[in-house]
Amino acid sequence: MPQGTFCNTTPIGSEEELKALLGDKGGAQYYEEMKELDVDSDALGALLEKTCQSRIHTWLEICAHCGMCADSCFLYRVNDRDPKQVPAYKIQSTLGELVKKKGKVTNEFMRHCVDVAWSQCTCCNRCGMYCPHGIDMGVMFSYLRGVLNSQGFVPWEMKIGSGMHRVYNAQMDVTTEDWIDTCEWMAEEYEEEWPGLEIPIDKEDADIMYTLNAREPKHYPEDLAEAAILFHLAGENWTVPSVGWEQTSLAMFAGDWAACKMQVESVYKAIERLRPKRVIGTECGHAHRATVIEGPYWAGREDGLPPAPYIHYVEWVAEALRTGKLKIDPEKKIKEPVTLQDSCNYVRNHGLAKATREIMSYIAEDFREMGPKREHNYCCGGGGGFNGIGKYRKERNKALQTKRDQILATGCKLVIAPCHNCWDAIRDLEEEYEIGIRWSFLKPLLIKMVIVPDHLKLPEE
Amino acid sequence: MIAFLTGPMLWVSLLVFFGGLTVRAVMYVRGLNWQLDRVAYKPHMSLGLRGAIHSIRCWLIPGGTYGWRQQPFMATGFFLFHIGAILLPLFLIGHQELLKMAFGFSLPTIPSSVADALTVLAIIGGFMLAIRRIALPEVRILTTAYDWFILGISVAPFVTGFIARLHLGNYDFWLTCHILTGEAVLLLAPFTKLSHIVLFFMSRGQLGMDYNIKRGGAKRETAFPW
């Protein structure tokens, strides 16, 4: 069968198509169709020829097969040191073969590549730090995902995810109306407790434009309210755009590069339209990576930078605490031992380890590091889309053991996770392994600890 | 035979070696693409070069990276072998005499006792790398006949040269073997994994640039902690 109804090389183009695909529960029909999907070897070969250049070609060629990357991979370690989980083996036996065979491969091989690319690598990029030749398997798996996607070989949830971006410009079906309603609703809801609280939409030339993760308006709008409260307390002149507010990119996990470009350009257009002094993104790792680190390249920006300075939430918090815009009540600091999850996407991929530690120094009395830490920290276990793919739930649950053991070793019951994906993985690991921990974003913790300036206090009854 | 090998054949080998590796290095840089690699090389060149140099330097120092520190056996084998593989071909007295004969100039030389020690250590290093390939499942799964060939051909000049140096057996035979294997390495380098002689610096440097330009090296006080 050349093309399936659901599993095919055509990206999602309309709401109807997206709903139909969503209706295929668990992707049952989708994965059946994938077994029959034809491989267009000519197109595949041409794509490899055009896009697999110097860097990846050399990496595949000069890999010394020394195996030094093995121990750097948490999936290798957690899967009883299975040699098939050695990063170099994983990439050589998939992308390496694809390149060697110039795309002349079977359907079965492509499906094998799908399994490896989405269930044996979270693109955490840790191996790249441990390879003497500087070979980054995470970068190559990211590339392989794009190559597989171009032939329709992509997990069902990933196709839905990038389809959402294509249809709604958001990873979930949050329309512009839904979004604006949520902003208004949240401002009203919290206004009584926080007099003067606003969520200003489309204010031009503000100091800050705030962008977020579609899950927030969709599933926990209080996160948006919390961001508003903290900006309010810090006295910031801020705004959110009516369009271009969604910072995440499931398309990046799916390897749908065209959708990545569409998504990030919507945010950049908002920046150009509203001309904020700078942009702050929410507590999310992959959103930061997509919009701030990789996005400029998808959008074709030669300087590799977004149209305005664009920082992660932890950078804003660290700065607000440092400059005294937000002041912590010493009595309310976290007294119990607390640890911190370093998100791969902004620590290893954007050097933000210092900002989070600076925050901890203000808010925690007994901060304990996980080992390894900072740039060397392990993936939460659910990165790169792993959290969301039902087909690989078993493998994902196994992968969570690394983080479980790291947390247990700290002796902490509270984990701060300023990333949606890490937050999810830690929630799931508690559900799966019941080690008695709690987890939190920074925003709700800060609101409990921060000193409210007199002029913003509720008038006494 | 030896006269031919140390005459025209040496010329050809050196030409292929240096010419070929230069071409590989140039091709590597030319093949880089800011948009495909997603690294803004040109606008942040100085930041990038700083990262490249830092990354290369860390990996050239024994114990200079987390990777080397975590795997002391591999690191020992690697450095023993590579220190000999760089110093001996360049500064061995015998090689310098050849150089003087052919080109009329020579580089400084290392004392023969040091050279002997380096040779033995390089052979031990090569042996350690071989042991890893057999003993560790994570390396065994990656190892192919090609890897054994590369390791074998790289260690061969040291073994044959040392046997000749000790005058064990037929001197001329072992000297011929030494020259042949040595020249084989030179000739093969640009076309095989041995191209890492130059491509290590390119690839390592490129990742150093990547991390410093884009992945936050610049947001740290110093460069990225390899």
TrEMBL record, chain A:
Record flagged with keyword Nucleus: no
Swiss-Prot/TrEMBL keywords: 4Fe-4S, Electron transport, Iron, Iron-sulfur, Metal-binding, Transport
Entry superkingdom: Bacteria
GO molecular function list: 4 iron, 4 sulfur cluster binding; metal ion binding; oxidoreductase activity
The 4Fe-4S ferredoxin-type domain, residue ranges: 60-135
InterPro entries per record: 4Fe4S_Fe-S-bd, 4Fe4S_Fe_S_CS, Cys_rich_dom, Helical_ferredxn, HmcF
Domain Cysteine-rich: 338-422
A Pfam family: Fer4_8
Protein name as it appears in the record: Fe-S oxidoreductase
UniProtKB/TrEMBL annotation, chain B:
Entry keyword annotation includes Transmembrane helix: yes
Transmembrane segments: 72-93, 113-131, 143-164, 184-202
Coiled coil: none
Alphabetic keyword roster: Membrane, Transmembrane, Transmembrane helix
UniProt-listed InterPro entries: NarG-like_sf, sulf_resp_HmcE
Origin: domain of life: Bacteria
Descriptive protein name: Nitrate reductase gamma subunit
Organism whose genome encodes this protein: Halodesulfovibrio aestuarii
Gene name linked to the record: hmcE
